[in-house]
Structure formats: structure tokens, C-alpha cells
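User: Run a structure prediction on this.
Assistant: Running it now.
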Amino acid sequence: MILSLGLHPSALDYSRHPGLDEETLKARIAVGEAALREDGFDFVTCQVSADPDEAEEQVRECLAGRPVEAAMIGGAVRMMPEHTLLFERLVNLLVQLVPGIVFCFNTSPETTVDALRRVTRGS
């Protein structure tokens, strides 16, 4: 199973992203998830809070009883300086909870399937 981990759309500061709003981002995420299903990926989506403590608990809940082998961590968590601590804590948590986990990274919701193909299918 794949963990698709990202910042919840309600936690994003849209003032830094002209032309993007919460509904548009939700729709883009839905398109990305549809592409994962069409490509046959078994995945669980975990959209987390910007608060590192809350996010850790949310990830633990998403992983409960699920044999995850890879995690895709979205750009809103990785690329925004204000979320550096969140990114660090989530990576360390995943390494602790899932020894041997493989990570991949997208550049947008639409490229999630490409990122997962790279780490699971070598393409």
C-alpha cells in the first residue's frame, strides 16, 4: 500500500498562490487520486494539519493496521519554508513506524502517479 501524504487543503495559505483556492486544489487532488486508481495503485490518502503534533497523530491514524511500503509527500509539506519542521517530523515518524519505507515526491497533484511509478515500477 502507498501513503499519499499532504497538507489538508484548508491548511494552505492561498494568499501565496494567486489563482488557486481551496476548491480548485481539492478538485486537482481528486483528479490525481483518480489517476492513481486508474493506474492500479492501492493507496491511502492522509491530509494533515499544518501543526506538527496534530499531523503526527493524523499519520498514525492513517497508518493504523495498514502495511505501507512507500510514501508520497506533497509539495505543500516539503517546499514551503514554514512547513520545514512539519516535513522533518513526518519523515522521521514514517521512518520510525515503517522501517525500509521508500519516499517519492510530486510537483503537483497531477504528477503524483508519476512519482509513485518511479519508486514502485522503476519508470
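The chain has a mean pLDDT of 93.
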